Amino acid sequence: MKIGLMHFRVGETDGVSLEMFKWKAVLEKMGHEVFLIGGETGNLKALKVPSISYRNKINIEIKNHAYISLDDWGVEDLIRKNEAYYSTILRELLKLPEMDVIFVNNIFSLGHNLSAAKAVYEFAKIKKIKLIGHHHDFYWERDFYSNPTTDYVAYYLENFFPPKDINHVVINSIARDSLQNYKGINSTIVPNVFDFSNDLWKRDSYNSKIIDKFNLKENDLIFLQATRIVQRKAIELAIDTLSKVVEEIHLYNRNVIYNGKKIDENSKIYLVLPGLNEEEAYTEKLVKYANKKNVDMILAEEMCEDERNESEGIFSLWDFYAISDFVTYPSVKEGFGNQFLEAVFAKKPILVFNYPVYDVDIEPLGFKTISLGNKTEKKEDFYMIPDDIITSASKEILEVLFNREKAYDYIETNFKLAKKHFSYNSLEEKLREILKSI
């Protein structure tokens, strides 16, 4: 088959883009010809539909008038501009090569681009292409989309988000139940996966340069926050926890952590963030908060891309995993958890907040992590959890770091479980069933 994988963007380090790479690899191994399709394609060899880019100015204008306020527009203005934009997208889609099936990532689920959803749906009808909606998030889960400004927008949300006459894939059981309850639509669960047959990421002569570039020492402790920088990642919870670790680390002077690194009186603790900075105001507040909490935080976005480029001093995300000692993952909401699987593959101990999907679909399988619990409240821009939980988690971090037997019990247990449940082999089995059903 000729199969398309479509999203607003491809080739970046966001979770959807990363998952599309995995699906492409598995589908090609199955013998299919696979096309990546996006409004933004980075440096990838991919099919470009420019008008569906996240940064498209026309859509940003339409979206604001569709969900925030009509302002100086009348309903007729919104309809006219949206329909013109729809026509533009459809013309671009019709230039794509022939395909049998397209997996449509989030275009039918978030309400972000009204015109794109209708255009992709109509394009598939015209070209007789089978569509499968691959839903990572839903518009009814986001406050922004909860009050459409007109019945016209509400009509779009009802009929194209998602269309009811196509097949549907979701990434967790909560999403499956939500889609059924909210729209009466059945779906197949395909969780995020990782290629556990790959060579393990290891330190080498190149990624070791990260240590030098940030003036770190070999006996410093490196905690990695590998996610994008957005509020729902609750990075402040990692800062809160590491602040307690900083207070206690002197008690372990001259001790050795699980990977052989020896801690001394000069060792420092760093929280390294190589992910995309997508909320500048939030990032600025994090920097100030880390300073207040005596946590050294390093923003490394400019040095991290999807692939390393040694001539330009660029490292991959995998390079940052390789040089880290511990992974923090305090997100309060995730569709599944790409960075969790990455940390497991990297064989690092992990700090997690038990976000709903982790609680329901992941932890019950037996994964071993340091937990921040599953209850939080938001005050102003930051998430907060009780201080006793933070203190307990910090003590467990130190216990795992300095107890080699316990650390490797956590690491190896997690690796075996993830390889069993979230491997490329498991994805291949599910994709065979889905393609056979259509």
From TrEMBL:
Domain Glycosyl transferase family: 209-358
InterPro entries: Glyco_trans_1 (IPR001296)
The keyword Flavoprotein is annotated on this UniProt entry: no
Alphabetically ordered keywords of this record: Transferase
Gene Ontology molecular function terms on file: glycosyltransferase activity
Stretches assigned to coiled coil: none
Top-rank taxon, per record: Bacteria
GO BP: lipopolysaccharide biosynthetic process
Name used for this protein in its record: Glycosyltransferase
Species of the source: Geotoga petraea
Lineage per the UniProt record: Bacteria, Thermotogati, Thermotogota, Thermotogae, Petrotogales
